[in-house]
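We store chain and fold; thus.
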Amino acid sequence: KSQLVIFSQSYFQEMMRQQLESSMHAELEKLLDTSTGAEREVSKKDFEGFKNIFHRFLQVKGPSVEWIKIQRPPEDSIQPYDKIAARGLPDNVADSLNKLVVVKLNGGLGTSMGCKGPKSLISVRNENTFLDLTVQQIEHLNKTYNTDVPLVLMNSFNTDEDTKKILQKYTHHRVKIHTFNQSRYPRINKESLLPVSTNLSMTGQNSEGWYPPGHGDIYASFHNSGLLDQLIAQGKEYIFVSNIDNLGATVDLHILHHLVSQPNGKRCEFVMEVTDKTRADVKGGTLIQYEGKLRLLEIAQVPKAHVDEFKSVSKFKIFNTNNLWISLAAIKRLQEQKAIDMEIIVNPKTLDGGQNVVQLETAVGAAIKSFDNALGINVPRSRFLPVKTTSDLLLVMSNLYSLDAGSLTMSPKREFPTTPHVKLGSSFTKVQEYLTRFESIPDMLELDHLTVSGDVTFGKNVSLKGTVIIIANHGDRIDIPAGSMLENKIVSGNLRILDH
């Protein structure tokens, strides 16, 4: 009898799944019928990918990992960077570089920093944007080694138009720039699990009905764009993928040499750069061994009972920087075999009108388990310098870093290699506001920790050392005078400066 109950339950669930799936397919067809021509064709391709992820979403039961099966990666599967670099570089660096394509993930907007348009167009240093710095870095490589490393930008429908306008300014630079677009997937109603859009347009009420499905979409959209085949035909072998806002993600010749010098049967198809966790990185995805394969474990996949264990710096010592080196031929093979397997990230959102929706996304690094001879390389922290907030922006605009050919490097004048911990309060969140609060960026060479809260401004040539905490209470305003030197100070209320 109990078997019968279980059978009828699973039969009922399967029927429900099939019904939801056929309703979804019918709705997608209706959406396609609201458009014609090229837009319809692009959306049709996008929807094939969406049907696949939606099908898998309906199949998933419970967590995607069984905690008991998680093992530490074998020693040789995460190599220290020093060991890779110790092999030195060959005489023909140009040969390796000509097999490389640099891909930047450029789908994000600058909204979290109070900016309109693509995040990559925010100025980060001496009027240079993220995109300017990227172009300068690759141009420098191409000129130095007389090579032809192209730059590929993966845009989203949010960033494509603005990015393409700006690309005209690089026509005379020695970098070929290609773009392709991430897919556009429909947001689905949390209750009915059906699309919230009524047609394919991006205007009016429908503008909130669409989303780019995370950077895991790179494999399908790169392949669908035709660019993957084009680059393979040009003799390119590897892509170096990173977030455009990670200023530490420059082309590393040692990692590239390691990849191209492997014997054919042992070719490493996927390298993930990882780095040591600090207390600030407890949420970062980590590498584990699972069912005999290297696998990325994200915090969203961890059962609630084990979240603290996941965050511990002692058990999971490293995290994913999202700097990845991937074989083009392997992407083509796996894409054609439909063999790339990435866990689904279910991202709940509330639209402006209060409607609850769900976005189904994937992450590029999660595909590591589908590639052969995958490897983690434990790189120096300097290769992970993301600018997510104005606190990060303050660091990269300061004298802690020097800029050379688009690359930021820690100033040799700083005595210890760690970056200071900076926390700017909500008055600094938006870039425009942040810029008006600093007459010039303070000297931070000897800073360990800075916390600023409330209505605070900084005059010219301020110097900050050790631990500095500045807190203006509600209704108060603190102006740090020009030329001040604050060392281990707490400044509070009405500009009383206390020793820390």
